[in-house]
Amino acid sequence: MSDEILKTTPLNAAHRALGARMVGFGGYDMPVQYEGVLAEHKWTREHAGLFDVSHMGQAKITGKDAIEQFERFVPGDYKIVKDHKQKYTHLLNDNGGIMDDLMAGKPDHDGLYVVVNAGNKDADFAYLNANLAGDAKLEILEDRALMALQGPEAVAVLSAFEPAVAEMAFMDINWLNIFGVNCIISRSGYTGEDGFEISVPNADAERIWNTILGDERVKPIGLGARDSLRLEAGLPLHGHDMDATTTPVETDLAFTISKSRKEAADFPGAERILKELAEGPSRKRVNLIVKEGAPAREGAEIADADGNIIGVVTSGGPSPSTGNKIAIGFVPPAFTEIGTELQVLVRGRPASATVVASPFVPTRYYRKPKA
Fold it and tell me: Does pTM top 0.70 for this prediction?
């Protein structure tokens, strides 16, 4: 038994009223499932699922030096990000390791709005507070909850409350008056589906949650299905598929390193990361389909065709959408070519596995047709 006292989100009572099974996650009491992971996963893929992600850390970095200061900690070029756009990036340590992955965007003209992972937010905010200089200031938005509406029917559901959201494209972000309050709305999420993240005042969170759930196309979805959805989408999870020892290159996320930042070599860990880009890293993230036995879970060893241990699984489980057993892991680059035959040790027994492309299930982010 753990003596940890779990924090709660403003939606805790709503989850319990719905009969959610609650678990500790990231220091919070969170719903892992309502009617079952499989049913919730499939509902999100076919309709619209509503997730409580209020455990994530929300903050603003304000001041005329906000963007210049933020760029000291990440490899992205945020000076070129347009208003009402956001971009995925990494908070890097001096060795190029990923301290956290996060979203940062411009819903207004005052600096940046950032969303960081729940388990890292205290450390992230302490780090930023200690290192921001000039007139850049960190404002932690403790008075706001966050929910994600995901799935092919998400846009129809949300546009019934505010038609303007239908005009947003993937990674757009804006302040909108919706549900009678000012919300930060982004067309994004971590399921591979089209959808939105909605930042709302704590005082209005339960009312808005219940209002959205009033649409028959929407069901509440727990952390269990959130994890299986993101795994199918090939999206790495911090603390599992990346951490302070892995770089964006190793994690196959080098797209976060902007061209201008490569040329300037002015981001944390640039020496190591640029060397990996030029010469290749010693290990690289890989996607696997496990063809026999039980699913390969985090910690399972990966072996080559001759049985030599070459890596480890960092995420894995069944794929409800495909019926396959899928996994993410790290192996030397020589073993990452699509179609390479490997083995995973599941409960001590070797099981055949094949390297496949990412994602396991095609993503359905909404991008406006080119004129």
Answer: yes
